Amino acid sequence: MIPDTGLEWIVDARGCPPAVLADVGAVRQCCEAIVDAMRLHVVGQPQWRKFDGPGGVTGLYLLSESHLTCHTFPEFGLICLNVYCCQPRNAPDWEQLLAESLGATAVVVRELTRGLREAASGAEPRPTAAFAPVESPPSPQPNDAEDAPAFQARAGRRPGGDAG
Question: Domain tally for the chain?
Fold first, then answer.
């Protein structure tokens, strides 16, 4: 039997002020609060990327337990977090933490048990979280009058494939 190999939290927080989500310092403080609350151990230096213009930020923490990532979308008032721990951890009070640190008004948390216990036993894997469909805006489409760099800029992408 293959044991469970950890827990993963996928967290979406909405209603955050756009200026906060575009501020690397504010998002960094939120991630540090998660690290402290979960008693995680950061390996090396966290990596941060601030996107140009109205774009958000992306952060990555390599952890001895696995990883913590975040991506912000100021235009939607949204931060998306992913925490994976291969060692048992208690989850923080996500709603309180994200409301206090980023002003979130709605938080959706999906907790997934990782591993192949069911597959090793011959049983069908069972989802441990329910996923509701999320409406997303239509993808931008190029028009005949614009070239690729203009379309990429309008679509929030940088030449070379970076999203912004």
Answer: 1
User: Where residue 111 sits, what CATH number does that domain have?
Assistant: 3.60.90.10
Residue 132 placed within a domain: no
Query: Is 15 inside any structural domain?
Result: yes
How far is residue 92's CA from residue 50's CA, in Å, rounded to a whole number? Answer: 26
Decide: 156 and 149 in contact? Cβ < 8 Å: no
Active-site pick, 16, 31, 70, 71: 71
Domain assignment of residue 66, yes or no: yes
71 catalytic per annotation: yes
pLDDT tens digits, residue range 1-12?
556 788 999 999
- The question of whether 139 is a catalytic residue gets the answer no
The reported pTM is 0.71
DSSP β-ladder status, 106-115 and 47-50: unpaired
pLDDT digits (tens, 9 = 90+) for 33-74: 999 999 999 999 999 999 998 899 999 999 999 999 999 999
User: How many alpha carbons fall within 13 Å on the CB side of residue 29?
Assistant: 13
By the 8 A CB rule, do 16 and 102 touch?
yes
Out of 30, 66, 70, 101, which one is annotated catalytic?
Answer: 66
Domain with 9, as residue range(s), is 4-124+142-154
β partners of residue 113 = 7
